[in-house]
## 1
Amino acid sequence: MSEFGRIAKDVAQIAKLIFCIFMSYLLFSLLKDYLESNQYLD
């Protein structure tokens, strides 16, 4: 049972890390699109 708990904790940390990276990538691409559309307006 303790082995399973340790694995579950590792999986949760990895999932959190992947989620943070994904959100950062999403924000970065949104920002890039926003800046590019502003350049086209000028």
Note: The mean pLDDT is 92.
## 2
Amino acid sequence: MGSKRGPDTEDEMDLGSRLQLTLLLLVQYNVWSSADQPVVPANAHLLSLEDFGLVSNMNQEGYPSDCYEIYQTSGGSSKDGLYVIQPMKVPIIVFCDMQGGGWTVIQHITANTTIDFDRTWHDYKQGFGSVKGDHWLGNEYMYQLTNKGGNYKLGIKLVDMDAEVKQGEYEPFQIENEEAQYKIRLGLYEGTAADALTQDTEAYLHDNQKFTTKDRDNDNYFENCAKLEYNGVAGGGWWYDACAGANLNRKNVIYWQKDCNKDHPCKYAWMMVKPTESGKQMRENSCQRDEL
């Protein structure tokens, strides 16, 4: 197995880039906080400068903690689109699925996307792509969203080449912090899609797995699963076991057991989160395998 490194220590954005973006946003979009201090979302690199004008609540005084809060406050009248939320200390930009009832999108991929998902630990930590389209929101922000108080659930949406839609939910859902290697925690599953994360037919169990990238090997295989290729394309970062019953970050084959694979290709996939008050608990027995 690859070496196990400690937590990443790189800054969210280098100081020069943040200062430049701050000035541009101030000039073009008058981005200010209530304290007359410039507010630049921590993941501003996930949106081009010209697209900041599409953010619905950029100059709002006090940001909601997630898309569901926006949905509730609006009485369900909010539209799908880009919003600023603040789950913990810093605001971030996200895409909100309001038609579905206020889901915060944390991942979206299109088959054969031009966005490179074969990224480093730092990239997966801070996010990449465009929140308008294909992207990974960032493990750090997934951690913040699911640990700010209250339980969350994970929604999966898959669309195949015939436009057939499969969906599923894991409730509750949590991403642990970077010290814990952004381990995934999953509760019970229900939906029309296969349960590919906690009940795989090939015995790959993703619940309680640490996150693995090409430069940080936390999986249970003798090789780094993120580096293994299919038709010349590496797997990308994921919560691998040894290796996967699901992987929504391999751009040439979106994989979700029988629902999405090389023989039954899918065109789109989404991962989304939303608060839940059901009181369901995490699984009592860890699915973590002993490391090789």
Note: The first strand starts at residue 81 and ends at 85.
## 3
Amino acid sequence: MKLLYVTREAPYGDNEGFILPEIDSHIQAGWDVFVCPLDGRKLVHRIEQTVLDRTMTKLLISPSICAGAIAQFVRTPRLALDTLWKLVTHSRITLLPRNLAVWPKGLWLGRQVRLLNIQHIHAHWIAVPATMGFIAASVAEVPFSITAHRYDIAQGNLIPTKFEAASFVRAIDEGGASELAMQARSDQRRPIILRMGVNIPDQPAPSPPDGVFRGVVGARLAEKKGYGYLLEAVAIAKQQGLAVHIDAFGDGPLEAELRRKADKLGISELVTWQGSVGHETLLERIRSGDYHFGVLPSVTARDGDKEGIPVFLMEAMAAGLPVISTPNGGIRELVAPGTGILVEERDSDAIAAAMVRLARNPSERRAMGTAARDRIITDFSIEARMNQLRSLISKSVTSGPPYRQPVPETQQDFRKVIV
């Protein structure tokens, strides 16, 4: 199977590390996987050269993009104009510029799909990445599918149009599936709920040393992640005689504000801002045995953005860490009773109480960590999830209409095609 992943920035950047294990799983299953980000340059993660060699790293617009778009337009003018018409007539006025911006690259990508004999396109995010995947799949006449998360669902970018064109739309939690169904037409198929999965280490993380009580959080420094409430909770715990050290991995728009808040609360010595790191580095730290718990006090942002099921929490639980979080978005579907502690959103006192509880009850903490790891092994293994995804993709290829004739093998050299 030749599969193309369309992403926002993966394998580049630091916000889509959760997609890389999916790609690796497909490769391990013997599939030939290509990747095309909307844009991307900064390499953060440790990536297999095989993936980088098959990543179509192109700007949204360039001479080669324009040349490829024109070539594809000349070859399939009706299909190209049909996608343009749908973008213009179906897009919200606020989203139209974003969709039009990817039209040339979508045509260019469709040409690459045809020349490489790619059989299926899978786009992560039902926002602009899925727009580009929709354009490419339409002009190349191959099936495509979408994984929708959460912010992208709320954006409402051509969702009925994409449902109509896609072989299937995957939601990663029940809440996301409900929101998608509300935006799709009543006569369209419902989304498939297929949760994210993670690689599970052979052994849980070693027990941390006695003395310093330490937690870990890995997320962007953004409103939805609730960092401000975590800082307040650390200050409250400190007032109660418990020093909780937090290692925060990630960067984002609130970094300066959060650093100032930590200073103002008098907890700067308890919070270490680790910055943005690659996915493998974060996994190594989670599994290092340095931490007693993972924490992510997510909230619904002012613009309505909320969580799906955060991969960071899954990975912490897979390492045998109990977690502290909120029932935001799909988190309640992950953190079952006995695997961690859920508190109400924006409740700093409750977060502090949960940290104190874990610190003062080591046997309960260890039992929660064991249950958390068992939960991931049973319900969130990436191999089980990707076997299901591969089955859906294979079905779309074998049961779909007779697509375009393959290009002769002599024309399929990737390095010669991507120009």
Note: The longest strand covers residues 2-7.
## 4
Amino acid sequence: MAGGSDAARAPPPLPPWPPAPLRHRYFALRHGESEANVAGIIIADPAVGTQRYGLTPAGRAAVAAAAEAFAASALASTGEASHPVALVASDFTRTRETAEVFGETLAGLGKASTLELSEAMRERYFGELEGGPNSRYGEVWAEDSQDPRAEPFGAESAASVWGRTTGLVSRLEAELPNDGRLVVIVSHGDALQILQTAFQGVSPAEHRSLQHLRPAELRELQPSVAPPAQAAG
């Protein structure tokens, strides 16, 4: 009886991801310090986040430093004949400004880039917690760890974020020329942590077990050889 009940609650497995070896190198870049970070508030509603709460001067400086480090490491290893870096960013103000600063810094170093704004990489929606203290993120994360389909406080589920962010990468794989491009995905903490679970082959329920991305931190996303992720831990 109990076994049947557990089976009924168990979610179906997520599809294998990536379905084939990736043709490009992917990097996650969390936005630099924003005005919302300084205020300690949750800004996840696109109606607000796409219009306000951009980067602080310190956030801009940190993003520029990340771009310089990227040019000196990842870009240097590809040689001068490399293709333009593909920047794909959430259309929130803080991520758009991050991508712009990153691209401008690369341009100043003689490195070309392109920029696409994508709703698929927007901040995770936190429902009733919008505008409240960011100390309440933990309440949602606790529910994630039990069931990535959960929507506490009307928040977007971790499974939903997994679907849209992996969908973005799959689209880039299909649309970008097959030339081994460097792709920098500029987004938000939860969106990038959850996308990283897909690369590492673990459940989105475990996103808080991964090393946290600091503001303006750049991290390469490398696919794991682990079995495909499941929707619940």
Note: Helices lie at 2-9, 35-39, 46-49, 57-78, 93-108, 137-146, 158-175, 189-200.
